[in-house]
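Residues pack. One example:


***
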Amino acid sequence: MTLMPLIRPARLRPGAKVAVVAPSGPVPEDRLEAGLEILRSWDLDPVVMPHVRGRHPDFWYLAGADEARAREMTAAWCDPSVTAVICARGGYGAQRIVDLLDWTAIRAAGPKVLVGYSDTTALHEAFAVRMGLATLHGPMVGALSFLKDGRTQESLRATLFEPESVRTLGLRTARTMVPGRARGITFGGCVSLLAADVGTPHARPSARGGLLLIEDVGEEDYRLDRILTQLLRSGLLEGVTGVALGSWAECGPYEQVRAVLHDRLGGLGVPVVEELGFGHSATALTVPFGVPAVLDADAGTLTLDEPALL
């Protein structure tokens, strides 16, 4: 099975209504309000679903019961007045709700914009596999990079409203790990979440023809080794055409992390670029999943064949 381009949702227009959801953990109120103000300054109309401000009675790391978070995610998607669904934060919990979402209703509601990263990786994979939808690996409403970094904000804003203006992605930090150019369909996210998805119902059976974009946070070098080794042993990475690496915040000294990444991914025989500029970093570019693109590891760029949104 070779990855094919996914359905791209429509770009946003001024005045668009966007739903803010909490499929994972709760978000601090001050960060939520600051993020909402940024969305409003773009002439968007953000509507906050109730459990964004909620907490599970027993598990501090969840923004409410699984059934409630899944119900709100489904309701937000199926609201005909909503054009985009943006996650409030990551953390943990999205995996717990992917099988509880009403996929029949979601498919009937049609394509919309989904934005998030980190734990949202579980949703990116689910929407790709179960709905055939391209999604945006971009900052959450309460993410510190979104609140503090102008380039992070502009990358998301431009992708949402003027997607043709952000066809070539990459920061000056980008460096060649394995030289070359590759073409493929973008997919990926938080690498620990990709590994956790292997073997689950409706998991992506193959990534042949895909450009793998991965990053993570708080995973020490030996744990990254285990995660990448699992992906290799599972066969998921067979046929991947290239790899773009984002940030590895709080994963230990970068040279140690880099050694693991090179050891585990260098043997794929495909171009690899490091520090492209997405993920849990001070500046986090918005990158689309499910679109054809060219990775130039020598130039340190990812160039989309077509805009992320219609």
In short: The CA atoms of residues 129 and 204 lie 6 Å apart. The chain is about 30% helix and 20% strand. The mean pLDDT is 97.
